[in-house]
Specification:
The protein has 9 helices and 17 strands. The chain has about 400 residues and is of the alpha/beta class. It is globular, with a radius of gyration of 22 Å.
């Protein structure tokens, strides 16, 4: 609906992308009833506009939506190929269309109001939140607002990188890909002067796969640069692009920074997704934390509690991420060496659980011991000095 006057609801979702879609589905799944819900977004998300890849235990409610999943993956470096068994976890690929479809069904079952307008200012008086459009007109009055619109960190980070990528969905007329094997990271790509690059391959079947080039670093490429990098990676894989069709192209830019995101900007406004700290600073991975946030919000509302999720990652993990980013950015350690040692000296399950932010302190110590000692010690000292300088400036 287009709102001609403000509506009163208990919960307003500002932004209707992945984070909001997961919340709507979780509210439906947990049987939240009697809750007046509004979704404020000028665009009603539908179809395929992105792909999420994540790991977790099989058998959850996402399984029917998955395009593919793998119990083992490859990590490739110039020194060779490692085949990692992920048991009991699995690596999974989820495309956006079924997520948006399920959210639309949940929205219908919740009898939610959709307001097809952009949101501007959020006025929170501690009792209610008024959502206004960019011209200052009131759209919604809500008891709580979950805001998933992109935001900058509250303060600039000491290190600010980007995970940026381009992927081609490649279709073949004959068997070309191995659907049983996904390539998680392939570091044979030419490495940037400052940062780290890798390719990966997610096959849906033997004739259709996502082939992607990714960089972690401070600067983006132009269109020609991404296309050249993808052509080069296809050559490394032995793919004949003249015999393949590019059905879809996916691009993305995700922040990798130790700058803090403000997840609770006012008493009744909660930020989700990247704006709410769901993006892992050292990798740019986001989906698993968004999924946790959605489940925690729904469980809280079902129990009559405020819809405030726990921090996406433990504080010690954010500190470790800040140190790792500093070490990579200042050249204390090479990106290929860093990730090679991480996978070489830890069980795959521990690495993946660490990247998801769910390892124990003892497991975190094991991960730290697998990193180069002297370079990382220098990064720890530099990070401590940077924190002190920032505190003195504030």
């Amino acid at each position: 609906m287009h709102a001609s006057s403000a509506v009163d609801v208990d919960l307003a979702l500002v932004g209707g992308g992945g984070a909001a879609s997961l919340v709507l589905a979780a509210l439906d799944r947990h049987g939240v009833s009697g809750l007046r819900v509004a979704v404020v977004d000028p665009v009603h998300k539908r179809g395929q506009d992105r792909t999420w890849a994540f790991w977790g235990l099989p058998g959850d409610d996402l399984d029917p939506l998955l395009s593919a999943s793998w119990s083992q993956v490859d990590v490739v470096t110039p020194a060779g190929r490692r085949v990692l068994s992920l048991d009991p976890l699995r690596y999974a690929m989820l495309r956006s269309a079924p997520v948006y479809d399920r959210a639309a069904e949940a929205e219908r079952r919740l009898d939610a109001v959709r307001i097809s307008a952009p949101a501007g200012e959020l006025r929170d008086d501690g009792e209610r939140v008024v959502v206004r459009d960019p011209d200052g007109r009131d759209l919604v009055r809500a008891g709580w607002v979950l805001d998933s619109r992109p935001r900058r960190p509250k303060r600039p980070g000491r290190t600010s990188w980007l995970q940026h990528f381009r992927g081609w969905w490649l279709a073949a007329d004959r068997p070309t890909f191995d659907p049983q094997r996904a390539v998680l990271m392939d570091f044979r790509t030419p490495q940037p002067q400052r940062g780290v690059s890798f390719g990966y391959v997610l096959p849906v079947d033997d004739r259709f796969a996502l082939v992607e080039y990714t960089e972690f670093g401070p600067t983006l490429l132009d269109d020609a640069g991404y296309d050249a990098a993808l052509r080069g990676y296809a050559d490394l894989l032995g793919l004949d692009l003249s015999a393949l069709r590019v059905r879809e192209v996916e691009d993305g830019v995700i922040p990798m920074t130790d700058g803090p995101f403000e997840s609770r900007p006012s008493p009744r406004v909660v930020r989700l997704g990247t704006a709410g700290g769901a993006t892992r600073p050292s990798t740019g991975f986001t989906f698993s934390a968004m999924l946790r946030q959605a489940d925690q919000v729904a469980r809280a509302l079902a129990a009559g509690r405020p819809p405030v999720p726990a921090p996406a990652y433990p504080g010690r993990h954010l500190w470790m991420d800040a140190v790792a980013l500093r070490a990579l950015d200042r050249g204390h350690v090479g990106g290929v060496e860093f990730f090679e040692r991480l996978f070489d000296r830890n069980p795959p399950e521990r690495v993946l659980r660490f990247l998801d932010g769910v390892t124990s302190p003892a497991e975190d110590l094991a991960v730290m011991r697998s990193s180069p000692l002297l370079p990382m010690t220098g990064a720890v000292l530099g990070d401590a000095a940077g924190r002190l300088r920032a505190r003195l400036r504030r």
